[in-house]
Structure formats: structure tokens, C-alpha cells
Amino acid sequence: MPTMLVALFLLAPVGSAPAQEPALPPTAKPEVVESLRAGAAAAKHPSDGGGRAWLDAEQSDPEAVAGMPGTWTIVYEAGPLGVAEGGGVYLQVSPFWGWSTPQVEAPELEGYTVVSSEVAGLRLEAETIDQQLLAVHLRGCGLAPGERIRFVYHGRADRFAESASRFWLAVDGSGDRAALA
């Protein structure tokens, strides 16, 4: 008889309340998720993200030492569609473990970055727009395919010895800022 009661209990209706979505953890950032989804879905200009970049080993410290200042030179070369006047190139250093934020205002402070180009008529307007993120806006003219911008970053490496820290560049080839969405 006790087995029969257990079986009946298991078969009893549990309730028909509508299912609820699980609560988000307190640290969740749904607005960031939506922003990333919108950015992924946004139409991009064919010149966005174009070109290539490299670390100029001859003009950079041979290695990054954890927690120590150093100088790194990054060269950006415009791709086959160039970068329009009003477009931009963005330098992002690692946002983890204490890399200095690139900045152009104070040469005596960590993160000081010199941005230059040999393109006639090109004015580079650089500004720090977020932690570890430097925007360089192209004024006067754009970059033709193969033309270059040089970033000389005088910063402090992160506090931990890592083998894969990177410098990232983003390119808004048309000036519509969709590449940043």
C-alpha cells in the first residue's frame, strides 16, 4: 500500500503556472548584450576593418616586462579601399591587468602616445575615448591604399607575465562609425 501512495503522489498534478524566465544575476549587463547584437547586425562599409597592422620590432622594446614601462611602435597600413577623410583608426591596448591607457595630452605620464603620418595634408586628431582606447580621426584628407599611420605608445605593461597580450586596431573606413557599433 505505501508503494501505491508514492505512485499516486508522483502522478498528482504539479500546477499550471506559466514558466518564468530565470532571473538575471546582479552583475548581468543586458544592455551590453543588446549593444553587441546590434553592432553585429549593423551594416558595415566595405572599407571598415580594412588594412593591416604590425609591431615595428626595430622601433619597439624587444619584450614587455610585467609591470614595467616600455615603448611599442605599431604601424597601420590602409587596405585596398583606403580610409576616407572623417574616418578613423582606433588603438586598443589590453584592458586587463593594468596596461596604461593610451593618451596624447601629457608626455610625462604613462600611456603617452605619439601618432604620426607622412601623408601630405593629413591631420590626425587623437583623443582617449575610453579606458585603453585611443581614437585617431582623419582630417584634411584620408588614407589612400598603402598609406600609413604610426603609433608610438609609451606605456606600462600589465602586472602579470603573459605571452599573448595584444594591441588591437579597429578601422572606421568611411567615417560613419558603424565599425564601432
Structure in words:
The longest helix is centred in the first third of the chain and has 12 residues. The chain is globular and about 65 Å long. About 5% of the residues have low confidence. It has a four-stranded antiparallel beta sheet, with no helix packed on it. Strands 5-6-3-8 form a four-stranded antiparallel beta sheet, with no helix packed on it. The protein contains two helices and eight strands; from the N terminus they run ααββββββββ. The protein is an alpha+beta fold and 181 residues long. It has one domain: Sandwich (Immunoglobulin-like).
Reported for the largest beta sheet, the result is: 4 strands, antiparallel
Beta-strand fraction estimate = 25-35%
* Low-confidence residue ranges: 4-12
The geometry reads as globular
| Tally of separate domains | 1
Spatial extent as radius of gyration: 25 Å
**Helical residues, percent:** 10-25%
SSE series = HHEEEEEEEE
Count of distinct strands: 8
Distance between the termini: 66 Å
Number of discrete helical segments? 2
Mean pLDDT: 84
CATH superfamily placement:
Mu homology domain, subdomain B
Strand order of the largest sheet: 1-2-7-4
Class derived from helix and strand content? alpha+beta
CATH class: Mainly Beta
* CATH fold title: Immunoglobulin-like
Quickly give the CATH architecture.
Answer: Sandwich
Structure summarized in a few sentences:
With 181 residues, the chain is of the alpha+beta class. Helix content is 12%, strand content 30%.
